[in-house]
Structures are given as structure tokens and as C-alpha cells.
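Review box. Two proteins, two foldings.
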Amino acid sequence: MYIEVQNASKTFLQNGKKFTAFNDVSLSIEKGEFICLLGPSGCGKSTLLNAIAGFSPVTEGSVKIDGKEVKEPSVKNVTIFQNYGLLPWRTVQKNVELGLEPKKIQKEERHKIADKYIELVGLSAFKKSHPRQLSGGMQQRVSIARALAVDPDIIFMDEPFGALDAITRMKLQDDILSISKQEKKTIIFVTHDIEEAVFLADRIVIMTPNPGKIKSIVTVPLKGHRERTASDFLQVRDKIFDLFNMKHEEQIEYII
């Protein structure tokens, strides 16, 4: 298995008191999978993402990627957040090239790589624009292009569309799903939106709070393009709603 989380817990000290963000979490992820961590605020899904990414290592248990224990972030992986993290003084093209510069790739090759991914996210007409000239959705596309340009092994996404309006959000969901299939990247995506998880994921990891734990793991059987109003999509969505209302003491894996 490519990513292995085994009996992992994460605790913090807050005002002198011990706080457990998530407890005894075990999860296996295959290379090329699109995994959604789904749950309400406070269930530890972002903390789990940060632990797998190496930003905040677990306090108990282990996290391994490709057999190696995760203790710090890797340059092989990238993280995309809600705030786009673009440099305002750089153009779209220069922002996308940012991660390529430390690799000492020649200027012409950098331009070529950046152009490929700017075209992939549909922003070729805006590559000379600056972030202030772009909408929020366009800025997030730039951050996605920048992430893809460095050819990462894993893309971590922490509610990247959470601040966007509904129409822009749906368009970016379409885009990231298409890109994930085309680029065959391993993606771990945090969300609290059930429909978003059903639309994107190969498997949905349902988390519950106090402390954060995995309640169930759902394999989504939908293939190809997903229609949000189709009966098979609605069936999966409704099953997820039901799972949140069920009381399980043990982690259970479902294939719907």
C-alpha cells in the first residue's frame, strides 16, 4: 500500500490541557487514488491531512508513505489551501514557475512546463495577468497549475474550494476530477460537503468528532463523468447522509 496510517493519534496542549484532534486512526491509500476526508468542523480531518503531509507529525502510531515514516514535509508532495498563496507581484506564468526555479530548470523549459499546466486549467489567455486581475476561482486554478507543474507524487487539498461561490465551485470540481484522471495523481482532499465528496472521490473517509475518528470508509462506484442529478449519484449521496446518522462503534468499510 502506498500510504499507510496505523493507529495514529494527534494531541495538543491548549491552555495547559490535553486536546486530542484525532484518535487511533488507521487508513490505507493506494497510489493514484482520490480520497476525500469528509466530516464536520472539529473532526480532525485537516489535522489528519497535515499529519500525512508531514506538517504536524502524529504523537502516537505511524504514518508511512512508500514505506518511509513521515516526519516532515517532502518536496515530492504539494499542498493546496483555501487561500491561494499566490505572489501578487508575479504574473500567472511566473507564479506557476515558482516551484520549478529551485530545481534549476532552464528558463525555456520552465516556460514550456508552465504553459502546459496553465493551458490544462484553462488560463492561457491570462498567463501575463497578475493575481489581482483574476477572480477567486481563477486564482485557485493558478495554484492548481503551480502544484501540477512540479510533478508531485501526492497532492494534498485542504477545502480548496470552500471560499468560492457555488457555480465556480462546481466548475472547479469538474476541472480537478478531470485533471486527476488525466494526470493520475494521488489526491487527498478535505471537505465538509457531502456532494463534493461523492462527485470527486474514489473512496470517502467519513470522520466524526470528539475525538476525531474514522467512522466508516465508503467506496464510490461511480465511473467516468458524474452527474449530480443522476439516480446513482443521489443514491450514494443519500447513503452518506444515512451513515452520518448511524451509530457505529467500529470503523466499517462499505462498497455502495
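Next protein.
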Amino acid sequence: MNCVFCAIVAGETDGHRVFEDEVVVAFLDARPLFPGHVLVVPKRHAETLTDLRATEVGPFFDRVRRITGAVERAMGAAGSFVAANNRVSQSVPHFHVHVVPRNRKDGLRGFFWPRTRYASPEEAASVAERVRAALAEEAAGSSGAPG
């Protein structure tokens, strides 16, 4: 496997690490939106959020929460933008969460893509039903199976 984030986790490639434990490695993004932009990656290679084991999700996001607070304090930020891509627009195929310090009028405009509306309440209801059905299907298929 030729994963740049796995190489950083293994110490084979330099990264400006800000945190490491048995669950994650966090390091500065090489192309930050703002100084203090950190990437949090699971130590075990997982390409997407859905590839994380169920038992890994809570500990992973606990670290994201802690690192987010630290980034805000360290950078004197009023808040932060915390986001992850899942395959589409994922520049490195190793799941990672961006923690970006934010301040009012910093130049970023909410989401980075145009927002739309549903054509009708019926369309919204149909989409909601499709998601509920997929969740029910998942629940039925995972009855007690390890994650």
C-alpha cells in the first residue's frame, strides 16, 4: 500500500505532528486553509468513515473533539470548521477529519459549494424515506454482527 498518511503514522514521512496516541495521529495540513489547520487520521488504515470499525468511531471522534478545542485555543479562533470527505473530493484515500480554525469574516463562506432546496415537500419526504429504509436495512443486516 502506498498511503501518504500511513507513512506519516509510521514515521516514514515527516508531518508536523500535534498529537498522537494509540488511536490517532494529528498533524498540520501541508496546504492549510488557515494556520493551525489540522488533519486527524486513524492509525489503522481505513479509506472512509464507513470503513472504521464501530468500536473505533467513538474513540476517534473523541480525539477529534479534543483536538478541535486545542486548535481553537492555540490559534485564538472564535470557532472551527470540522469536516471530512468520504471518497468524493478525498485527496488521500485514508479517512481524515479536517479541523480548521475559524474567525468571523475570515473569507470562508459556509460550505464550499452551492446550496439548493428540495423541489417540494413531497420530494423531501421521498428522500427522507429512502434514507430511513437504508438505515432499517443496515440495522436488519447487522443484528449483533461485529463492526
